[in-house]
Design a protein that fits this description.
There is one protein chain. This protein is mainly alpha-helical. The protein has 4 helices and 2 strands; from the N terminus they run H-H-H-E-H-E. A two-stranded parallel sheet has the order 1-2. Strand 1, helix 4 and strand 2 form a beta-alpha-beta unit. It comes from Noccaea caerulescens (Alpine penny-cress). Pfam families: F-box-like (PF12937).
Length: about 80
């Protein structure tokens, strides 16, 4: 058996689906910093989102803009 962790063997689409279930932007930001594959998976998970809620979050315009830009299927935005 190789030294590769079992989570590293997950296909990108499956990892993106799992990350699409994460609702904490802090957790998603941390996940995107793990490695290039995880960053791609976070970006892919954002693209699948139809709604985003920033209610109760203190985010600057640049951060909000980047998240909304990634969520191109967005139908609902709660600020």
């Amino acid at each position: 058996m190789s030294g590769e962790a079992s989570i590293d063997r997950l296909p990108l689409d499956l990892l993106a689906y799992i990350l699409s279930l994460v609702t904490s932007f802090t957790d998603l930001a941390q996940a995107s910093g793990v490695c290039k594959k995880w960053r791609k998976a976070v970006n892919q998970s954002m693209a699948r989102r139809e709604s985003l809620s920033f209610a109760g979050w203190k985010m600057d315009d640049d951060s909000t803009s980047r998240l909304v830009h990634l969520a191109y299927n967005l139908k609902e935005l709660d600020m």
